[in-house]
Specification:
It is an enzyme of class 2 (transferase). One of its GO terms (biological process) is Notch signaling pathway. It is found in: Cytoplasm. The chain is an alpha+beta fold. The protein has one domain: Enolase-like, domain 1 (2-Layer Sandwich). Helix content is 23%, strand content 30%. The chain has helices spanning 37-51, 92-99; strands at residues 2-8, 11-12, 23-24, 27-33, 56-61, 64-69. It has a two-stranded antiparallel sheet with strand order 1-4. The longest helix is centred in the middle third of the chain and has 15 residues, at 37-51. It is elongated. It starts with a strand and ends with a helix.
Length: 100
């Protein structure tokens, strides 16, 4: 199994964010992929998306700005199925590659 870890630091939002200049709270994020050829290929595509700033976004939650997942779907659990962002989800790798 491949485990992707993202540590997003707290900072201030920039132009183009919902509230430029406002502080936002970061966080730790984890996603999972199968450790096979297709999973490794997907990991490389997700890395490129992260490097281009497409993985996360800043949202207002209860009056506080915070980093959240963006529009690219990630599986954040090994179980629970698609309804809980987990596996099993036989279509996930195909779906995420289409988005990427």
């Amino acid at each position: 199994a491949l485990r992707l870890l993202f540590k997003m630091l707290s900072s201030c939002s920039k132009d183009g964010d919902p509230r430029p200049g406002q502080p936002y709270k970061g966080g730790n994020f984890c996603a999972f992929l199968p450790d096979n050829r297709e999973g490794q290929k997907t990991a490389m595509l997700l890395k490129k998306a992260f490097e281009h700033g497409l993985t996360f976004q800043i949202k207002s939650c209860n009056g506080e700005e915070r980093v959240t997942w963006g529009l690219i779907p990630h599986r954040t659990s090994w179980d629970g199925g698609k309804a809980r962002n987990g596996y099993p989800d036989a279509q996930y790798l195909r779906e995420v590659c289409t988005v990427l």
